[in-house]
Amino acid sequence: MNSFTTELTVDRTPEEVFAAVTDVRGWFSKTITGTATAVGDAFSFVDKGIPSTRIRVTELVPGRRVAWHVEDAYVAFTDQPDEWTDTRMSFDITPGPGGTTVRFTHHGLTPDQACYTECSRGWTSCVNTSLHALLTTGVGEPIPESAAPAK
């Protein structure tokens, strides 16, 4: 399976990268409700294209790995709105001579899916731009609250 993957390397310790990844409001979305700091925690986010989602933390290995399971999601901009449901996401953290690398994979987000192009673009922005900024400047660029559907 060719699940979507992206990675970045930063001049930070594995522990600093782990702390940033688990700070989902700091890099992912300002609309996060819930927490993502302990196994079993669940959180949700909304934006105009994904008005509902529930993600559960399934694995936390400090300085090494973070994993999530999408329990429910509605991807409104495709004709297959449930294609994120039951997928997984992982952040594998590896120290190296050039710094610490974090490899993000959305397991189950594959090129044959309706949302692949748009969703891979979104993940690339969240990880390679926002998470990178959080790690290197201390301030991420999460999806803003203004991206949430109007109430």
TrEMBL record:
Residues 13-135 form the Activator of Hsp90 ATPase homologue 1/2-like C-terminal domain. It holds the Pfam family AHSA1. SUPFAM superfamilies: Bet v1-like (SSF55961). CDD domains: SRPBCC_CalC_Aha1-like. InterPro entries: ASHA1/2-like_C, START-like_dom_sf. Belongs to the AHA1 family. This is SRPBCC domain-containing protein. It comes from Amycolatopsis halotolerans.
